Amino acid sequence: MIGELDIDGVFVPSLLVAAMIAFCLTSLVRWSLRRLHFYRFVWHAGLFDVALFVVTLWVTAMATATWNTPGVN
Amino acid sequence: MSFRKLTFALANTAAVLAALYVAFARDLERPYWAMFTVFIVANPIVGAVRSKAVYRVLGTLAGASVALFLVPPLVNAPVLLCLATSLWVGVCLYLSLLDRTPRSYMFLLAGYTATIVGLAVVDSPEKIFDTTISRVEEISLGLICAAIAHSIIFPQSVTGELDRRIRATVITARQWLSGALMRPERPSDLQAQQQLAAVVTDLHMLYTHVAFEISDVPRSAQVMRLLQDRLALLLPRVSGIQKAVAALTVSGQVPEPLVRALEATSQWFRTDETTAPNCTCQCPKAARACQCHRVVPVELAATSADSLRTIPLDWRELLEQSALSNLRELIAAFADTQELARALANDQAKLPARFEQEAAALGRRPFYRDRGLALLSAFGAAGATLLACLLWIEGSWPEGAVAAQFAAIGCSLAATLDDPSKFIRSAIIGISLALPFAALYEFALLPRVDGFASLALVLSPALLLFSLMQASKRLGGAGLILAVAFSGGLALQSTYKADFAAFVNSNSAEIAGLLIAVVMSLVFRTIDPAWNAVRIARSGFKAVSRLATARKVDLRAWTIEMFDRLGLVTSRIGAIGKPISARENIDGLRDLRVGLNIGTIREVGGELGLASRSALQTVLKTVCSLYRSGPGNGRARAGIEAAIDQGITSLSAEAPSRPMLDGLAALTGLRLDLVPTGSQYAISHPL
């Protein structure tokens, strides 16, 4: 099951926190890729963006896996 | 049915089903909130879906948090709670109306989400936190599904729409300009004004979506704004030429060089740049740096070179100079328009340096804001919510909360319209039409459904139909109302509990709430379009008067704001069908021309001698006081003639230079607009 983060008594799903971090990271990456005109080489930019987010989310979730409060499921 | 509409409908249906699936799988409280959220943000343009999604989630968060703060302390004082909620709705609506971009949706939603979350739980206040969470969860779920589906399944970026709009505008402007140059002003020009002004404002609104677009859409907001600036200049310049030529015709024949210049320019407008025969430059077609479209008609170049040598001496020569100077500006603005339109379509293109400098200096862009009307609408919405709440409390009406919610929603969503009650009435009709449909599903089809697959199969035809309706321009609004009413009426939940009494009760409360909204809109917002047009025009007078004497001005921002006003006024006058009485003296284009001339006068003032500078100051002060009381005021008009004539006389005494000639042209333009027709400038002393 997905763990939860205890923020001052409010339990927030850690996946939500990870998704927010991943969104910020993705926005940053998208912005830099656009500056580099990288999207000229992308066939389907919408699909690429979503895939990029999923990959970033996975990385973030892996990196923050240790944050889960033990004992809360 | 086009391929585009079909793919849009498929993507939308997929998004609705995905949202429902996740909501059922996670056992959320009200899956139908996620369902109609998808319909609400649905738009054929991906950027619009994503921007609305962002604004909706932010608005929902704000509104739900306010409910969370208001309800627990006030739950035992229902009247206070209702007052506070209504006030919040009003404040949010006011803020939303001041912001005319798509961002206004955020404020709108913050307002009525507070009623949806807050008023639904007054019977069981301990549930407020759960309701808040589930509202935010389900809205976000619907938004995410919609955003992903529309981004992945055959996305249509805003670029296509922008491109189409701009190209159509350039073509129409080209045709209209080539005709308008050769003839005097006529009443049908009002339509052209309205179209062009609407396009400039629309382009601005459309462009706000670009920031939210898929990553491969070029972001060039500055180019867009420069383009708007140039488009806004076309009309005042043409009408300035028309005015000057008309005045020349009154006192004799139009001078030959001017006629030749006008004919050549008109011809230049008629020839499309791609087929221009006189393009002699050897650059390959792909090179964006090609300057051949800037070939200014030869005749005009010759006349403007001459003009530096001769100082205009009498009124006719002044008129001729003024027409030529307007013509130069017109040609420059139109050439820039084409160049900027090309740059917008292709972000690889490097902008010429002069645009780069200008883009760096762009300030904030205001649009016309109507504080008075916004306040009135806010009162209407707050009043409607409060009225529904009072009926609910006093009448012990169990479903009264729903009525209050719908009163707030109805007033908020219709507030931007001139006649909100009409919109709300059509929403009522839409809901009444959707209800039997929802009832058919609820009581005949759903009892046989077991599991998500069969639910999806049963729902798909309706979802596809609504999505298809939303894809078309004409049926879009109706489709949205039907879809939302259908989703709300169905109120899908994870277990099937059909309750006919509850179905009828809550839906009749919805309609009652909207009826209250109609009444309040009729009370607060029954506005005569002619009166509204006069109000907007008068606020334009104030803007002119501020421009004349304010210490620091941004002429471009001012022009865009005036142009926006011009569009609002002309569209209302056009809708009435009969002209507003001449006493009001409404002419948005004249005010725009006066403003541009004031801008020139302020600009050249610093480069001239002391005597001219003080004469120009006097002119600015007189224009300011004239516009403070409205340009129709007879007494104020007498002073302006003397002031302008004094300005022309002292400028004529200067050595010939570009600022001096520009100043003379601007003064002539002002004189044409502000001094009663027929009077002519007479030289008061020999040079």
Could you characterize the architecture of this molecule?
The complex is a heterodimer of chains A (73) and B (687). The model of chain A has no long low-confidence stretch (mean pLDDT 82). By secondary structure, chain A is mostly helical. A two-stranded antiparallel ribbon of chain A has the order 1-2. In chain A, α1 crosses α2. The longest helix of chain A has 22 residues. Chain A has 2 helices and 2 strands; from the N terminus they run ββαα. The termini of chain A are close together. In chain A, 12% of the residues are buried. Helices cover 56% and strands 11% of the residues of chain A. Chain A has one domain. Chain B folds into 3 domains: 313 residues, no CATH class; 160 residues; 146 residues, no CATH class. Chain B has 25 helices and no strands. In chain B, 73% of the residues lie in helices and 0% in strands. With 687 residues, chain B is mostly helical. About 3% of the residues of chain B have low confidence. The N and C termini of chain B lie far apart (73 Å). Classes of the chains: A mainly alpha (73), B mainly alpha (687).
